[in-house]
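We were asked to recover a plausible sequence for a given structure. The inputs and outputs are reproduced exactly as logged, with field labels preserved.

PROBLEM: sequence recovery
POSITIONS: 147
GIVEN STRUCTURE:
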């Protein structure tokens, strides 16, 4: 079976279920599908991406260069969007502590506790579902960062 190569234009044009299916294939095949993808180009797209594309772009960055993703993921710990905060926390938690720079540790240390929200697709309402406190606390503990 031939693995398709990641197509950035196709990825950016998708939404909903097609985006989820495409991104799932991308994540499942990792390096095979991402061969030749430019980390800096992917990382630069985060500035203007919507929530769903941002989650997948963070995942892409983590697969493309785990040594550089911490600096991009850490600020999302302070995002009020639950999926982005959760993704950032998972990515950062999966990294080796010695690979996390002093600058990223400072971002984690100074990250405020905020309410997290989820947009209910049925009603369109934004609903509070908790805070980022556990994510921050777990990362601080893993990295030996005093509160």
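RECOVERED SEQUENCE:
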């Amino acid at each position: 079976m031939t693995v398709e190569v990641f197509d950035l234009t196709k990825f950016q044009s998708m939404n909903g279920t097609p985006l989820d299916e495409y991104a799932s294939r991308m994540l499942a095949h990792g390096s095979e599908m991402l061969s030749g993808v430019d980390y800096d180009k992917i990382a630069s797209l985060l500035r203007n991406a919507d929530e769903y594309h941002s989650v997948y772009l963070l995942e892409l960055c983590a697969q493309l260069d785990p040594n550089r993703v911490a600096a991009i993921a850490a600020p999302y710990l302070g995002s009020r969007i639950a999926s982005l905060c959760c993704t950032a926390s998972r990515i950062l938690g999966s990294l080796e502590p010695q690979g996390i720079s002093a600058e990223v540790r400072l971002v984690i240390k100074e990250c405020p506790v905020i309410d997290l929200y989820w947009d209910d697709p049925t009603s369109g309402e934004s609903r509070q579902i908790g805070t980022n406190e556990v994510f921050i606390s777990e990362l601080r503990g893993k990295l030996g960062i005093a509160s």
